[in-house]
Automatic annotation (TrEMBL):
<feature type="transmembrane region" description="Helical">
    <location>
        <begin position="40"/>
        <end position="61"/>
    </location>
</feature>
<keyword id="KW-0812">Transmembrane</keyword>
<dbReference type="GO" id="GO:0032259">
    <property type="term" value="P:methylation"/>
</dbReference>
<keyword id="KW-0489">Methyltransferase</keyword>
<dbReference type="Pfam" id="PF06966">
    <property type="entry name" value="DUF1295"/>
</dbReference>
<dbReference type="InterPro" id="IPR010721">
    <property type="entry name" value="UstE-like"/>
</dbReference>
<feature type="transmembrane region" description="Helical">
    <location>
        <begin position="81"/>
        <end position="110"/>
    </location>
</feature>
<keyword id="KW-1133">Transmembrane helix</keyword>
<feature type="transmembrane region" description="Helical">
    <location>
        <begin position="6"/>
        <end position="28"/>
    </location>
</feature>
<dbReference type="GO" id="GO:0008168">
    <property type="term" value="F:methyltransferase activity"/>
</dbReference>
<protein>
    <submittedName>
        <fullName>Isoprenylcysteine carboxylmethyltransferase family protein</fullName>
    </submittedName>
</protein>
<keyword id="KW-0808">Transferase</keyword>
<feature type="transmembrane region" description="Helical">
    <location>
        <begin position="131"/>
        <end position="164"/>
    </location>
</feature>
<keyword id="KW-0472">Membrane</keyword>
Length: 200
């Protein structure tokens, strides 16, 4: 049962990633647009709700399943790793708050639709995908604070999916913004910042 639970956890995270990418893919959106017609404008918010509900379900399973403690950190190390965990969480909240209107899909309920804009200010001056960086920083710091096998497996799957998903998203952004994004891509790292102020 112990091994089975961990295999199920890995499969759930993989399935979540596959569904997330598939439902966000251009071919799937075009198909749903043909199927839903005028109601397609609600697709994004339904997709966001589905992602949130399935994510919560996986997290409940992960944090309630029995798992093995892989190692134990001394007290001073635990205090130390809370700092990057909080920084990662803060980055996630800043980005989500900034893009909540478009990410959640609630913009469909407003008459004014925002056009896509290539952001190069704020956190985007240091990294092209600050949400991914904040998420990975938070997750791996949390794993070091709570080093259970279940958390480690989740971190590995999420990291692999994030790296792959970021590369797929890059193709969409290049198609959307063209040479402007290519130039931005050459100046700014994708996920892991250099921690230096890039030249204007």
């Amino acid at each position: 049962m112990f091994i089975t639970d961990h295999i199920i956890l890995v499969l759930l995270w993989v399935l979540f990633g596959v569904l997330h990418s598939m439902l966000a893919a251009g071919w799937c959106k075009r198909f749903m647009q043909r199927v839903l017609g005028r109601k397609y404008k609600y697709y994004h918010i339904i997709y966001s709700l589905f992602a949130a509900i399935t994510l919560m379900g996986i997290l409940v399973f992960q944090f309630t399943m029995p798992s093995r403690l892989l190692f134990t950190l001394p007290g001073w190390a635990k205090v130390l790793f809370w700092l990057p965990a909080l920084i990662g969480l803060a980055i996630m909240l800043i980005v989500i708050r900034k893009y909540f209107f478009s990410l959640s899909g609630i913009c469909v309920f407003y008459k004014q639709q925002l056009l896509p804009v290539l952001k190069q200010d704020g956190l985007h001056r240091y990294v092209r995908h600050p949400l991914y960086f904040g998420t990975l920083l938070f997750l791996w710091s949390l794993f070091l604070l709570f080093p259970y096998l279940s958390n480690g497996l989740a971190c590995i799957v999420i990291t692999l999916y994030t790296l792959l998903g970021a590369r797929l998203e890059e193709k969409k952004l290049i198609a959307l913004f063209g040479e402007k994004y290519v130039a931005y891509k050459q100046r700014i790292p994708m996920i892991f910042p250099r921690f230096i102020l890039p030249p204007d």
